[in-house]
Amino acid sequence: MEFGVVLSPCYGRIEKVAINRESRIYEWETLFQIKGINGRVQPIQTGMSGEVQSLEVKEGDRVIPGMVLAYIKEDLFVTGSD
User: What is the pTM of this model?
Assistant: First the structure.
């Protein structure tokens, strides 16, 4: 069983949490929106799919680069070709 981590890429404030604990997520789905210190809202996405194990932030929380936003129990589907 693999666990992935969703990290904040920037300084800012959580504008929106688009997922719930135990919800399923899919690759490149928007999970969070962070309003950066420059005033721009940045969607937070990830290349993994699976089930949300825990949310580490809520709307209005301040974040810094590298801060954990969520833990994801990843699906282990192998894709690709030779």
Answer: 0.88
